[in-house]
């Protein structure tokens, strides 16, 4: 049913994805005045007062894909086996999303040879993976309870 704890966990993933899309992932400032900021959509480089932006939509696309998969998973409450499969797919997507985010964060900071200052956005994909794992655990527990009840009949 939709009022179970796994629904709250999955809904919190959707909220975290929304937060991810609005916060910065990494900021770095070098000693010679170069500054770079990365968020889910753009990389902004400020060099000698001149600002240049390049798009990084693939990070946002993966985040939105994860949110869409989670929303679909929430409404599959009547078919727990399908929910478990979608949870595995979501875990894979979250892992790829985390990898892309980490790769871009490191490459952005290395591009200006500056120590990075990691922001909230870098840790959100890992939190989403944790929440998805917890939701999958509760889905499996529900499936086990139903199977045990069927066995008793």
> What is the level 1 CATH name?
Mainly Alpha
| Average predicted local confidence, pLDDT | 89
The helix-and-strand class reads alpha+beta
CATH third-tier fold name: Butyryl-CoA Dehydrogenase, subunit A, domain 3
Q: Termini separation (Å)?
A: 22 Å
Task: Please compute the radius of gyration using only Cα atoms.
Answer: 19 Å
Helix content: 55-70%
Order of helices and strands: HEEEEHHEH
Shape: elongated
Unreliable runs = none
Count helical runs.
Answer: 4
Largest sheet, strands/sense/barrel = 5 strands, antiparallel
Q: Name the strands of the widest sheet in spatial order.
A: 4-3-2-1-5
> At CATH's second level, what is the architecture?
Up-down Bundle
Domains, number: 1
Strand content: 15-25%
The beta-strand count equals 5
What oligomeric assembly is this protein in? single chain
What secondary-structure arrangement, pairings included, does this model have?
Layout: H1 5-20, E1 24-29, E2 35-39, E3 42-47, E4 50-55, H2 57-74, H3 80-111, E5 116-118, H4 124-152
Antiparallel strand pairs: 1-2, 1-5, 2-3, 3-4
Which tags fit this structure?
153 residues, alpha+beta, Butyryl-CoA Dehydrogenase, subunit A, domain 3, five-stranded antiparallel beta sheet, 4 helices
Explain what this protein looks like in three dimensions.
This protein has one domain (5-143): Butyryl-CoA Dehydrogenase, subunit A, domain 3. 62% of the residues lie in helices and 17% in strands. The radius of gyration is 19 Å and the shape is elongated. A 5-stranded antiparallel β-sheet has the order 4-3-2-1-5, with helices on one face. By secondary structure, the chain is α+β, with helices and mostly antiparallel strands. It contains 4 helices and 5 strands; from the N terminus they run H-E-E-E-E-H-H-E-H.
